[in-house]
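Before drawing any conclusions, I looked closely at one protein, both as residues and as discrete backbone shape codes, quoted below without any editing:
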Amino acid sequence: MRMTRRLAIGAAALALIVSACGPGGGGSNSPSGGGSKPTVKVGSDGFYEAKLMAEIYAQALEAKGYTIDRTGIGIGARAVSAPALESGQIELKPEYLGGGLAFYDKTKVSGDPAAERTALQAILGAKGITVLEFSPAADFNAFVVTQETATEMNLARMSDLTAVKDTIKLGVASDCPTNPVCGEALKTAYGLDVANATLLSACDTPMVQALQAGTIDVGELCSTQPEIAVNGWVVLEDDKATQPAENLVPLVRNSLLDALGGEKDAFQTVLNDISAKMTTETLLDLGKQIQVDKKDIAVVAKAWLQANGFVS
């Protein structure tokens, strides 16, 4: 939904007035224990799967009577969305455990999602953020080549890229040069320098198109991205285990939870139940509907929520 500039300015001014009259903090402006439920500011990273999960959270909460502010959905990469959550610009967002943890402390990432959640909570707890239950659904960073490139260059593992590193054309996520589980990991483990790589949205159409056109030889995609199977592409084995466990998990500001008062547990249960129901196979199917079948994210989200009893 879009507003004109004049309406946007007026809405922002009204929000400031209401916030000034409410309790302190960067969270929702409805008082704890009040008669109405607080508005929930939902946000996400910019790629389709993160936006899908944010929309699923939003619609499930709407069904429980919450008003949702979707302004922050698709706000940008983690370098944008993480500070937005810390500041209160958004209050709820889907996160991937390994990537979220690496953003703050790359030394704590591992293949153990439970350990990653504990470590992430220790960091975010000091920032006024709660890490809810993680989902069995996971989506790791995948480095992909076409079948033709795999055959021509004899590529099956990431280590195989080392021999052709001076000729291979890399396509990586826009934040890869500063992301420790991307740029630094590729350099340390495989000797791949991303300084001259093509920077694109990692799990989005431009990376897919670049691989299809041959503009790049290796593209960083999400492991649940349906175009991998549709095009018969090859996911190179991360044989030196550089990528962490990337289970989905909701992050929520404590100021919002405090504003919920007696509804706090019910609010968290909605989100935790969504996490429990989501699987990696489901992410693949939902991603195909969005990326290949070109269905609207909100429509796909609603259908999944209805099928799993979250909305009528």
